[in-house]
Design goal:
- This protein is an alpha+beta fold and 93 residues long.
- It has one domain: Gcn5-related N-acetyltransferase (GNAT) (Aminopeptidase), CATH 3.40.630.
- 27% of the residues lie in helices and 38% in strands.
- It has 2 helices and 5 strands, in the order ββββαβα.
- It is globular, with a radius of gyration of 12 Å.
- The protein starts with a strand and ends in a 9-residue tail after the last helix.
Length: 93
């Protein structure tokens, strides 16, 4: 599954499908140069049950690791992934 990223200075998203109408998306904001806030994660009915939400969170974690950023998971889904995956704790703010 191809996960793409759209990013501007203060907001962005990891998504599957078309940017204008993604089938799945994780939306984030950059609260500070070293802090990403995951605001919302949504997966279409078409992709539900295929682990796509987890893959989006994993993409955000890898992005944070590469860019030395900490993540604040405000989104309930993302927060639940962080609770289940202690290996992601290194990027948790």
């Amino acid at each position: 599954m191809l996960i793409q990223q759209k990013d501007n200075e203060h907001r962005g998203m990891f998504f599957v499908g078309e940017e204008s109408e993604p089938l799945a998306a994780l939306v984030y904001s950059i609260a500070a140069p070293t802090k990403m806030v995951i605001e919302h994660t949504e997966v279409s009915d078409e992709l539900r049950g295929k682990n796509v939400g987890y893959q989006l969170v994993h993409a955000a974690v890898e992005y944070a690791r590469t860019n030395n950023i900490k993540i604040v998971p405000l989104c309930p889904f993302a927060r639940s992934v962080f609770k289940k995956k202690p290996e992601f704790a290194d990027v948790l703010s």
